[in-house]
Design a protein that fits this description.
Blueprint lengths: L1 H22 L1 E3 L6 E3 L1 H55 L5 E5 L2 E7 H4 L12 H13 L3 E8 L6 H21 L7 E5 L12 H7 L1 E8 L2
Parallel strand pairs: 5-6
Antiparallel strand pairs: 1-2, 3-4, 4-7, 5-7
Length: 220
């Protein structure tokens, strides 16, 4: 009987969470797509996780308490990511930096053509103001980790492109540190010519694939 009650509570938590996910949506003004806010996703996922742990630990009462606490925690994280995403979009309009929400993370995609000279890893000085704007917003939301990933097109050898992508990511990471962001929050990595966005068969495609991506993720 006890196991049956726990299963019922779990299924009820999932049902409520799915209702939250389907009912609390909005239209993204930049893409025109319908999306669910990270706050709603975080609340729903937190409620499910908290409910499961609570049910296992404390039966009916534990499931209810765990679901509430998990939902509140997930909602707070999601709301913070939503707010940071909105501020980044507003700040970076017209800079050439694309801002995307993917689940409970935010990606800033920067074309290498406006960030670096060809074959070079030093950030162009005219891109400093844009990176400074990124740093200003990211410093306000210090509950996120910062992953800086460099990519190249397929021109040149694998080893050359791998080193170039790593050095470009490091240059961006170093600049963010110079703007007051803790180095403990930053991870830099290079992917070389791997993971192209589009085909490298055209100049336009290669331009899109040469990029640096900053990914922001909740620390907890």
């Amino acid at each position: 009987m006890k196991i049956a009650r726990q299963k019922k509570l779990l299924f009820a938590s999932i049902a409520v969470s799915l209702t939250l996910l389907s009912g609390c949506s909005s239209t993204n003004p930049y893409t025109g797509e319908t999306q669910t806010s990270d706050a709603t996703k975080g609340t729903a996922i937190g409620a499910i996780g908290g409910g499961v742990i609570g049910a296992l630990a404390g039966g009916t009462q534990g499931a209810l308490i765990g679901g509430v606490i998990g939902g509140l925690g997930g909602g707070l994280i999601g709301n913070s990511m939503d707010t940071e995403n909105t501020e980044l979009r507003n700040t970076l309009q017209g800079t050439g930096v694309q801002v995307h929400q993917q689940g409970n993370s935010i990606q800033l995609v920067m074309a290498s053509d406006v960030t670096f000279q060809t074959g070079q890893a030093s950030v162009l000085s005219n891109f400093y103001p844009t990176l400074s704007s990124v740093a200003t917003v990211v410093k306000k939301y210090n509950n996120t980790s910062i992953i800086v990933t460099g990519y190249t097109d397929n021109v040149g050898g694998d080893a050359y492109n791998q080193v170039l992508s790593e050095n470009r990511a490091k240059s961006v990471g170093d600049y963010l540190v110079s703007q007051g962001i803790s180095p403990n929050r930053i991870i830099t990595e290079g992917r070389g010519k791997r993971d192209p966005l589009v085909s490298n068969n055209t100049a336009g495609g290669r331009s899109m694939n040469r990029r640096v991506v900053i990914t922001l993720r909740p620390l907890s």
